[in-house]
Amino acid sequence: MNTLLLFCLLAYLIGSIPTGKIVASLKGIDIQQVGTGNIGASNAYLTMGKKAGLLVLLGDFGKAYLLVDLALRYLSFGETSIVGLFLILGNMKSLFLRFSGGKGIATSLGVFLATEPLVGFVLVLCWGAGLVFAKYMFLFAMMGTMIVPFTYYKLTYDLLALFISFLICLLILLKHRKNFKLKSRKGPEVQKI
């Protein structure tokens, strides 16, 4: 079997592992029925506390980082970015959750840090600023996401990786579209993640 295809299938399956659902079920909680209903680290933190949130974050981040790091040894940089895309698709459309899932933030961080650490640093910087100014967390996260493709290309000059990073960022933005609530006359109100 083609190496890229094998890695993509593996990436989708590993990305599909619902870390948040597993962590919550160990506490007797159905994470999809509490808080925002999302299986990601933010909802885990809001509904179960800091330790659970950190565990989910590290789980989603770690599985992506390790697989992408492995893929880089066998595939080109551009091909590895495709593997990263399948990891994020697995997180968002989990095979084990009837094709529902997370929003891809922690998984994408693992992908970008493994492929190009400076890009990951840009994301961490923006998300960190969002945590400091909690009211604007969503805006900082989205700003970091939109900067990624340009930073990626500036550092790698790989057109395939640039295209895939645009797809990843578009998927993340689409997943977060509900974070904007339109209010009449006052413009968009930003919800916390």
Automatic annotation (TrEMBL):
Keywords: Acyltransferase, Cell membrane, Lipid biosynthesis, Lipid metabolism, Membrane, Phospholipid biosynthesis, Phospholipid metabolism, Transferase, Transmembrane, Transmembrane helix. It is a multi-pass membrane protein. It comes from the Bacteria. This is Glycerol-3-phosphate acyltransferase. It is an enzyme of class 2 (transferase). It is found in: Cell membrane. Pathway: Lipid metabolism; phospholipid metabolism. Its EC number is 2.3.1.275. It catalyses: an acyl phosphate + sn-glycerol 3-phosphate = a 1-acyl-sn-glycero-3-phosphate + phosphate. Belongs to the PlsY family. Probably interacts with PlsX. The chain crosses the membrane at residues 74-92, 104-129, 159-176.
